[in-house]
Amino acid sequence: MGIGLPMPVRAENVATSWPQAQSDLTADSDVQFGVLANGMRFAIKRNTTPTNQAAIRFRIGSGSLDEKDNQQGLAHFLEHMAFKGSTNVGEDEMVRMLQRKGLAFGPDTNAHTSYSETVYSLDLPQVDADTISTGLKLMRETASELKLNAAAFDRERGVILSEERLRDTPQYRTGVSVLNSLLEGQRVTMRSPIGKTEIIRNAPVDLLREYYTANYRPDNATLIVVGDVDPAALEAEIRERFSDWKASGPEQPAPDLGTLKSKGETVNVVALPGNMTRVQIAWTRPFDTTKDSVAKRRDDLIEDLGFLVLQRRLSVMASRADAPFISANAGTQGLLKSARLAVVSASSEPDKWQAALSAIDQEQRRIQEFGVTEAELQREIVEFRSALQADAAGAATRNSTALANMLAGSVDADQVFTSPKDDLSLFETITSDVTVDEVNAALRAAFTGNGPQVLLQAAKSPEGGEEAVRSAYSTTRAISVSALAGAEDVVWPYTSFGESSAVVEREAVEDLGLTMVRFANGVRLTVKPTKLRANEVLVREHISGGRSQIARDPFPPLWASPAVILSGTEDLDFENIQKALTGKIFGIDFSVGDSAVRFDGRTRTEDLETQLQLMAAYTSRPTYRPEVFKRVQQAYLSSLDQYDATAGSVVRRDFAGLVHSNDPRWAFPSREQLSSATLGDVEALFKPLVSKGPIEITIVGDVTVDDAIRLTAGTFGALPQRAEISPQSDQTVVKFPDSNDKPLISTHTGRDDTAAISVGVPIGDLFSDVPRSFIADISTQILQNRLIDQFRIAEGATYGLQASAELSRDLPGFGFGYISLETTPEKVESFYTLLDKVAADLRTNPVSDDEMARAREPAVETLKHQKQTNDFWAFYLQQAQTDPRRLELIRYTMEGYGKVTADQVREFAQKYFQTEHLWKWEVLPAGVR
After folding, report:
1. DSSP letters of 682-729?
2. What is the DSSP letter of 349?
3. Residue 797 to residue 467: CA distance in whole angstroms
4. Using an 8 Å Cβ cutoff, are 63 and 115 in contact?
5. Cβ neighbours of 661 (radius 10 Å)
6. Is the whole-model pTM more than 0.90?
7. In 10 A of CB 322, how many CB atoms?
8. Residues of the chain with pLDDT > 70: what percent?
C-alpha cells in the first residue's frame, strides 16, 4: 500500500477551508467564495455602495502569536516592510503609485498586525481595469515578492520604535497588565504585537526573512474584494495572478496557546501614574473551539441577552443621584482564542472604588441568584430585533469598505459569513421559544470557572494594597442580595407639540436635489432625499449661537455638554427615554460648534417621526439633572491626570485652546475650573441656547420631501416662534496665535524619549477666498508628503506626521495650516532644519506634475466617495438656508482641486510657508526641559 498524497483543492468544491463547509449555517449567497489549487482562499462580493469603488483585503493568518522567541515584533515589522519594495515595485514606490491612483496613505492604504493575523487594506477609488489590476498586483507582490532589503530594514527600525513610543500610554500598559492577569502563563501574554524593543533595534534581517517564508503562504492567506466589480472577471484575474504562488517550506503548526490556568478567587492591583480608577470582576473558562453552527449561535445569543439585561441594570444605576460609579459595563467575549471571558466592571472617582466594587458585585450576584424577569428579557429581544431588521432593510446599500472588513473579521473568527436576512430569520427562530430559565442558566454558567478575579486599576495603589481590595470584596460578599423590584412601564409623552404652523416659503434647488422650507414660526427645513443607504435618514438640528456667541468670561462650562443628552427631558430621564422608545431605531447627540449648537440623529425611515419628536422634546423641554452633571464632572476630573502622561495626550488636550490664542471657549478646563463649576452655570449656559435660538433642520436620506415636511411641521413646526438669525457679535473675533522665535514649551510626565511638535501658520477663513482653501489643501499635502519622505522614510525619526489646512466656515478671518508629529527630543531641532529646507524649496522651485497628482488625486477621490454618503450632504447642507455660500461650495467642490496649479502652490508657499510666520509648540518630557 502506497503513501497517500494530498489532492489539489479545487475552488468549485470550496474545500473545507471555508467555515460553511463544516457548518449547518448558510453563507451569504451574494458572496462568491473559492479556493485556489495552492490553498489560497478568496471571496468576492459585488456591491455598488459606493459606485465605481472597491475594497481589497489581503489577510495572512499569522501574527505575533506565530513569532519565535527571537522574532518578537517582526510580524508587525514585516507589515511595514511590505511598503518598502518588492520584485516589481521599487522601494517606497508603492505609496506613490497608489497616490497617483487617488488613494491616500492611511485612510485608503493601510495594514494592521494583531496576535493572529496581518491584514493589508486597499480602498480603490476607481474600478477600471488598470486600478483593479494594480491593487491585485500589489497584493501579489506582498504575498511572496518582498525584497526585505537590509538597508531599508535598518531605516525602518526608527519608525517602528516611534510607533512603540506612541502606543506606550498608561491605558495600553494597563491593558497589557489586565490581559496578563486573565491569561497568566499563556502564549498571548508573551507575544504583544509591538514586540520587544531590543529585537526591533537589533534583529538581523534574516530573522525577518525567515518569518516571511514560514508564514506568508497561500494556504495561510485569504483575498477579499468587495465593490462595483464583475465577480467572474475578477475571479479570472485572481486565478491568473495568484495560482503560481507556492509555499517555500512545510506548513507551520498552529502555535500552542497554552492552557488556561485554574484559579479560584484572586485579587490584583494595577497602579500606574495617569491611570483612571476602575474595578472589575472577571471569570474565565476554556475557549470554545467548536465550529460555527446554529446551536452555537443559539447559545451565544441566549448568553448575550442575559448580559444585555445586566448591562441595562448597571446603566440605570449609573443615572441615579446616588450612583456608586461613573459608568459600568458587563459582557462576555472570546479572548484571543485563549479563554471565554465574563466580566463586570465600573469606573469611579479615585476615593470611591470600594463603593463601585460593592455595587457591581451585588448586581452580579443578584442576577446570578434571581435571574432576569420576563419583561426584561422581552425588552432586549425587541431591541435586538429592531437592530437586525434595520440591518436587513439596509443590506443592499451597505458600504463596501465595511463589508470587506466584516468578511475579514469573519475569517479571523472562523465564522460563517451570513446575510442580514438570514441573521434576522435565525434570531426569530431562536427567540420564538427561548425562556427565562434558559437565559438564567446561561448567566449562571458564565459566572463559573476561574474566578471571581477581582482587579483594581488606579493611578496609585490604595493603602494596604491588594489586601485592602480583598477586604473590601469580602465585606461586600457578606451582604445578601434580594430580587430586583418590578419596574413600571413608561409611556412616550411627546406625540403632540401643538398646532403645526404653516409653510410660508418653499424653494426647490433643482441642481442639488434639495427642497428648502420655512415655517411660520421661523423654523427652517432643508430636505435632501437620497437612495444612498436604504432605510437610513439623518437629521441635524442647528440652533444658532455656538462658541463664538458665548461670553469668554467667566470660563464657560462647555465641557459639560454631555449632560444635555444624559439629563433627558423635563418629563423623562435618559433611561426612561430609552425604555419608552424600546423597539425604535433612533440616535441623539449634542455638540457645540463655532456658530451653532447641534442635535444629531440617525434613524430608519419608519422611525423618522419618533426621531423628530425626540429632538423637539430635547429642544423645547430641556432639563439639567444634578446627578448627571456630577457624573460628567467626575468623569472629567478622573481623567485629568492621564492627559499629562504622554506627549500626544498633552497635544490632544491643549491644541484647540492654543490655536485659538487661549480663548477659554476652546480651551480645556483646569481642575479648578472643573471643580468650581455648578449645575446653575451649566443651565445658564445651555438652556437659553437650546430653547430660544433660531432653528434650522436638515433631513437627508431615504425619505420623501412631503413626508419630511409633514413630520417636521408636526414637531418643530409646532414649537413657539423662533427668532431669525442675528448678525454676529464682537464675541466672534478669534485669532490664531502670533508667530514666535522661540517655541512655546509644554511638558508631559511620560517617557524621556518622547516629544511632540506642532507648527502652524495663519491663513484665513474658507469663505473669504474659496479657491485659496483648495490651494491650501494641496500645498499642505505636498508639504506632508515631502516631510514624510525625509523625516519618516529616510531618517526613521517619526511614525505619525500629518499636515493639514483648517479654514473656518464660521469664524471670519480664522483658519490655519499646521504640521503635527511625534519624535524624540534629540530630533526636534533637526525637524525644524528640515522644515525650513523643504519650505524654501516649495517657495523657490516648481512642483512636478507627479507631485501635484499625488496630492490632488487622493483629495478628489475622497470627495467622490464622500458625496455618495448621507453624512456628506448632512454636513455640507448645515445652515445652508441662512448662508447660501454653503450651496456654492458644494457646486465648486469637485472642480476646486482640479483648478489648483503648481504656480499657485509656489505662490502659496511664498506667502505662508515663511519661517518668520510660524507659530511653534513643543511638548517635551518634564525631565528634559
Report:
1. HHHHHHHHHHHS-EEEEEEES--HHHHHHHHHTTGGGSPP-PPPPPP-
2. -
3. 45
4. yes
5. 15
6. yes
7. 7
8. 97
